[in-house]
Write a structure and sequence with these properties.
The N and C termini lie far apart (37 Å). 24% of the residues lie in helices and 33% in strands. Strand 6 and strand 7 (147-154) form a beta hairpin. The protein has a single domain (34-71, 82-190), classed as tt1808, chain A. The strands form three sheets. The chain has a six-stranded mixed beta sheet. The protein contains four helices and ten strands; from the N terminus they run H-E-E-H-E-E-E-H-E-E-E-E-E-H. By secondary structure, the chain is an alpha+beta fold.
């Protein structure tokens, strides 16, 4: 939901911030991003697990092969540019150049690891925007509750539906769109102690 009670920020405003400031643009609002040890541990573990799996299963010449990017900065529209914890793209969709700035291509899969400071952005605001921009799969990983929710576009690509909800007690799971990857949630969340 775009806020009309104050001037909206745009990508140009976001790009004016110093390089060491971690922020993203959500509904025309610049939102500062904080990290925590649990967040970083889960992001690292998922990057290694999914990245290794994709690399082993994907032919580098296959244009439909996956490319997984950690901290993927993606432009959706004038008022929305997110830094996703993880995002998956098809190789054919990625630009060949090394331009500075956000990717201007829709991911096929996004994973956000939530923390208390960004809970509402990831579970509500971003989810609605990703749905609007037709990102096929959206994972929300909660290190506090030790859960994973998988949303998939349904209803002729109009609305997200939860197609999988799992927690640490489920052990090994296969989550869309990586149906051939067995992810061990016990191992993933045990990193947190």
């Amino acid at each position: 939901m775009i806020r009309l009670d104050k001037p909206l920020s745009t990508l140009e405003d976001l790009e004016k911030l110093p390089d060491d400031v971690r922020a993203e643009l959500v509904d025309g609002e610049i939102v500062m991003m904080a990290t925590s040890t649990p967040h970083s541990l889960i992001c690292t573990a998922l990057t290694m697990e999914i990245g290794t799996h994709v690399k082993a299963k994907t032919d580098r010449q296959d244009p439909n092969g996956w490319v997984i990017i950690a901290e993927a900065w993606v432009y959706y529209d004038r008022y929305n540019a997110f830094v996703h914890d993880l995002a998956g793209f098809f190789r054919k969709d990625l630009p060949k150049s090394n331009d500075r700035g956000p990717l201007r291509v829709r991911p096929e899969w996004v994973c956000e690891v939530i923390s208390p400071s960004n809970w509402s952005h990831d579970t509500q605001r971003k989810r609605l925007i990703l749905e609007q921009h037709q990102v096929p799969y959206y994972w929300i990983v909660d290190p506090v509750r030790k859960t994973v929710q998988v949303f998939e576009l349904k209803d002729k690509n109009e609305h997200y539906q939860i197609v999988y909800a799992a927690d640490i007690g489920d052990g090994r799971v296969k989550l869309p769109p990586f149906a051939d990857l067995e992810l061990d949630l016990t191992e993933l969340f045990d990193e947190l102690g």
